[in-house]
Design a protein that fits this description.
Layout (H helix, E strand, L loop, with lengths): L9 H8 L4 H10 L15 H18 L7 E10 L32 E9 L2 E3 L10 E3 L4 H4 L1 H9 L3 E2 L14 H15 L6 H13 L3 H20 L10
Parallel strand pairs: 1-4, 4-5
Antiparallel strand pairs: 1-2, 2-3
Length: 244
């Protein structure tokens, strides 16, 4: 039952086995040594994307291995909203004498206030987006249409910037990109613990939290980049298990 991609709940296990709910809970924890976790959120992959990821992951690994990742500057942008601060959570724990009717409803703001953040990360730290001509660094961004457009690529070539071509990057691959699998999650987790009420406060908090990111943590995230590419290759283009 537990090995299926979509296993039944512990309650339904108990009903199917005609035992109390404590039995599957005990067996999962103590006999099978398994824990219940919320599934990670993935970008959907069709078979074409899987094939492309498999084809491109090995060449990317060779570009990044043996500390070559130190020459890369990877950049990304993300929206950060006020609704993601002030210790708001999507989970809640109830005491045994309460039931699901006591859960606090999760509210969704239709047009949340927020700011668009664009940053570079490299072995030198987190910086504002910068372009380095003459091959001093390799510029990387994902392959969304605005990045992959001819206008964007021509601009980079005119500036004599060495960059990773859209045809070299893997589609739908946040499990490989350091900004996706480290930076934004880390930053939003820190911001969630702060009391922020205005956009100017949010901008200030973002700048302060970015400065606090330990260099060692950043280097570990970048160092894992080639490893993630090779894991995608051996996963035959599927999403890798340890994507956060």
């Amino acid at each position: 039952m537990t090995s299926k991609p979509d296993p039944i709940t512990q309650s339904n296990m108990a009903k199917a086995l005609n035992v109390s709910q404590q039995v599957p809970c005990y067996k999962l924890k103590h006999t099978l040594k398994k824990k219940c976790h919320e599934k990670p959120k993935w970008h959907g992959l069709n078979e074409r994307s899987v094939q492309i990821r498999r084809q491109r992951s090995w060449p990317l690994y060779k570009l990044l291995r043996k500390d070559r990742w130190r020459k890369f500057i990877t950049t990304d942008e993300a929206w950060i909203y006020l609704s993601e601060t002030n210790a708001k959570s999507e989970v809640q724990y109830l005491s045994p004498d309460r039931n699901k009717r006591d859960l606090t409803p999760s509210t969704t703001v239709s047009h949340p206030k927020g700011v668009m953040v664009w940053m570079d990360i490299s072995s030198n730290g987190v910086t504002k987006p910068q372009l380095y001509p003459n091959g001093d660094a390799v510029f990387h961004q994902d392959a969304i249409p605005s990045h992959a457009s001819r206008v964007t690529q021509k601009f980079l070539m005119d500036q004599q910037v060495q960059f990773l071509r859209p045809q070299q990057w893997m589609p739908n691959s946040p499990d490989a990109a350091p900004c996706d699998n480290f930076l934004w999650g880390h930053l939003k987790n820190k911001l969630n613990k702060l009391r922020v009420s205005t956009l100017s406060d949010l901008q200030k908090a973002i700048r302060e939290e970015v400065k606090k990111i330990p260099q060692g943590m950043l280097l570990r995230a970048l160092k894992s980049w080639p490893k993630r590419c090779i894991q995608i290759y051996y996963a035959e283009g599927r999403h890798i298990e340890n994507h956060r």
